[in-house]
Design goal:
The protein is an alpha+beta fold and about 100 residues long. The chain has one domain. The chain is about 15% helix and about 35% strand. It has a six-stranded mixed beta sheet, with helices on one face. A hairpin with a 7-residue loop joins strand 4 and strand 5.
Amino acid sequence: MKAYDTLTDALEGLRQQGFTKDYNLKPDCLYCQSDSIELQPADFDIVEVYRFEGMTDPGDETVLYAIEAQNGDKGTLVDAYGTYSEAISPEMAEKLRYTPEN
């Protein structure tokens, strides 16, 4: 897994590797607005995870997930966590607890 200094660098690097879909986190699925695709937790795997801290407040953290759907589509999910994180289903929370063995 490559190390990136910024979120922008990581997004560009992943796009060059074919992670072109842009997923948004919904309470029980990932949603790609451009294709109207919904992925349930069983429909995708997390390939890589990158964490970035805010420059002015280390409590402002962002997580970038590299996602691969069962149909082969690849994309990214950018999620803030901490006070800005959204309520999600237990199944989605478990799926987003990435470990390299997943």
